[in-house]
Design brief:
About 45% of the residues lie in helices and about 15% in strands. The chain is an alpha/beta fold and about 270 residues long. The chain has a single domain (about 10-274), classed as TIM Barrel. α3 (about 40-50) packs parallel to α5 (about 75-85), α3 runs parallel beside α11 and α6 packs parallel to α7 (about 140-150).
Length: about 270
């Protein structure tokens, strides 16, 4: 691997792993239902990722907004952060997930005015508190930049992840590059490609380097037929880690997993990329 900053291992998927374990995730609350009814399951998954080698853990706040979770959204946000804290060692960092208001795969559904809702969640997460605010899975650059602005305004370290989708067709590498530069100018200290098909991530990593901040990648395992994730076992996890080693060689120093990955992927990342 090329010389560069030390590699930090992030955790992997939460929602898809909960589904694999038999939990129902109906819209619009999705994983927030499990935070409400089975917080111990969330804590257990965080603990598994910590044992596998992750040192940054994203709290399950992806859908704990009022529009998704209802009037007790703040309580659920706090509960998700508490589950993460309880599941990992004290020296590990917890990130609060700030997601698009609508679909990660439908940039056209992004509301024209998302600022107030992003501000509300950013402030709620900051008060928990979390260590990092992670704006993740944004296919719409304009909305991502609004989320970054509101997160940076809290004074917490802010990272942002752009989503090109499972087919890597929602954002071009050039669009992501421009978004990353704009996000860094607004105060983001790290930029990511995430929830993008693992096999197509490397060109995005190259593009993100122009932002002048730390670069990261945590990928979607892609189609189940690729055998990279979705319960594919050790062989799939090893294939994922081999792809991730290419991301590190391309300049990424923050590496984790997204939909379809699990703690076995984290263990392989720890073994191959550190």
């Amino acid at each position: 691997m090329s010389a560069g900053p030390p590699v930090t291992i992030l955790d992997g998927a939460m929602g898809s792993l909960l589904e694999q374990r038999g939990f129902a995730l109906p819209a619009p609350g999705w994983s927030a239902h499990v935070v409400r009814d089975h917080p111990q399951a969330i804590q257990q998954i965080h603990a598994e990722y910590a044992r596998a080698g992750a040192t940054v853990h994203t709290a399950c706040t992806f859908r704990t907004r009022r529009r998704n979770a209802g009037d007790d959204w703040k309580h659920l946000t706090e509960a998700a952060v508490q589950a993460a804290r309880a599941g990992v060692p004290g020296g590990h960092r917890v990130a609060g997930s700030v997601a698009p208001l609508e679909s990660c795969y439908r940039p056209d559904l992004s509301p024209k005015d998302s600022r107030a809702e992003h501000r509300d969640l950013a402030l709620a997460l900051a008060s928990c508190p979390v260590d990092i605010l992670l704006c993740e899975s944004f296919p719409n650059v304009a909305e991502a930049l609004v989320a970054v602005e509101e997160c940076v305004a809290t004074g917490l370290e802010t990272w942002v992840g752009f989503c090109a989708g499972p087919q890597a067709n929602l954002l071009s590498a050039e669009e992501m590059r421009r978004g990353a530069i704009a996000a860094a100018a607004r105060g983001a200290s790290a930029v990511f490609v995430n929830c993008t098909a693992a096999a197509g991530v490397t060109p995005y990593v190259h593009a993100l380097r122009d932002a002048g901040v730390r670069v990261g990648a945590y990928a979607n395992a892609g189609d189940v037929r690729e055998g990279i994730g979705w319960g594919s076992g050790t062989s799939g996890a090893r294939r994922y880690a081999l792809l991730a080693r290419d991301w590190v060689n391309a300049g990424a120093s923050l590496i984790g997993g997204c939909c379809g990955t699990d703690p076995s992927h984290t263990a392989e990342l720890q073994a191959l990329c550190i």
